[in-house]
Amino acid sequence: MKEILYSSTRGGERGLTASQAILRGLAADGGLFMPGEIPAFDFDLETLIGKSYQETAYAVMRLFLTDYTEEELKACIAGAYDAKFDTPEMAPLVKADGAYYLELFHGKTIAFKDMALSILPYLMTTAARKNGVTNKIEILTATSGDTGKAAMAGFADVPGTGIIVFFPKGGVSRFQELQMVTQKGENTAVVALHGNFDDAQTGVKEIFGDKAFNAMLAEHQIQLSSANSINIGRLVPQVVYYVWAYLKLRENGEIAEGEKINVCVPTGNFGNILAAYFAKHCGLPVDKLICASNDNNVLTDFFNTGVYDKNRDFMITTSPSMDILVSSNLERLLYLASGCDTAEDRVLMRLLKETGKYRIPQKMRDAMVDFRGGCAVQEEVAARIRDLYEKSGYVIDTHTGVASAVYEKYRKETGDETKTVIASTASPFKFSRAVMSAIQGDVSGLDDWEVIDLLSEKAGIPIPPAVEEIRTAEVRHRTECDPDKMEETVAKLLGI
Length: 496
Ligand SMILES: *Cc1c(COP(=O)(O)O)cnc(C)c1O
Prior knowledge:
It contains 21 helices and 15 strands. The protein has 496 residues and is an alpha/beta fold. Helix 1 (18-24) packs across helix 5 (120-130) and helix 2 packs across helix 10. The chain starts with 5 loop residues before the first strand and ends with a helix. Residues 111, 113, 146, 229, 266-272, 321-322, 399, 425-426 line the site of pyridoxal-5'-phosphate.
């Protein structure tokens, strides 16, 4: 098998093994690690039909993580994808109203981030062992609501690691906040930031880039890494579930051998949809990649005009995990679309930093023809959640609702009837109030738990354990800080 090495999108670092790239998270030049090439499937897809999720994961991930031995990678997969998930399928595919919903929310924190974040700690600790790292690995993460909880659930009490999560105070749902501030584990810390997600993400990236601060940490035998989707170890496990969805469609006789499918992904940081794009490059028969945004529709404009412009109001919506104006992983698509031109990437990223805006040349736009951008505002999302429920009885969360609404518009506008997989990224229970007010109308007279009970009744599904846990959990984290005090806060939390 061909060895895959990783390099920064900005050209400053080259030739890292997968395990080194995972340990590092972000490159020292501020770029993101990319594989030297996207590996092609070296097997016939048809041979995977009927295989387990774990077997599929091994077949796909081994292509990217070539310095992990078979034994190491299989151990990581077995440790991650076990009874923590409430179904042995890991990611069931549900057909409703003419589309296929890939339910990625059956893990511990009932959002799709579990798919990658339950395996990242295994990949990371294995990487540390392989590279003789004895420092404590401190994970520093900005979250728009779901990453933080899923990352803490993955890293809690993992020896040799610690984790600090920054979330935008008031910018996540009440339930997401409760999930985070009640997190157990001696090595976990949560900070409510007086700012939005972009402030949190920018602050974290700056800490990664601060050489003096990192040198000071090194003196205390600590090194930083990232659990955000800027870490390639987050991206690779996500490639798997698109392959899995395809295999399920084959297994159920919904598509013929080699038949192309579309995917539609509710997008924030552009990680999930990029994984689908990677899957396409590996050889998965995917036609269009529909990038669905909420009211924060920077990406829709980008795909329609070639101009990325974050200079606009930041909207807080009912799909908070997509309330993002700077989608980090887009840098990886720019890099691919420019033919791995690191100089071009540096120019665009500098423009983004200095002016909040850039325009890509036509040749790069041409390289992105597989993508379609679409957006749905909150009212459209609520209407779509209700409509789908009335037509099929199937209840989806607000993020999945964005994708579903965008897909319906796409289908009407284009007449494209290609079978489409919609990434269902969170359980409706995670956003019960918004989901129930979409279905039922005004629920302001009910408290949170009454809304959850009502949802369980309407959807005909039991309340997930992740929700039940929150009822009685005690608040353990109360730290808050301003965006310009993040580094200080990290130092304080680490006791240095
Ligand atoms: C994080 C998240 C998204 C956005 O995914 P990206 O990979 O950041 O594009 C969408 N929906 C939910 C529920 C999420 O938690």
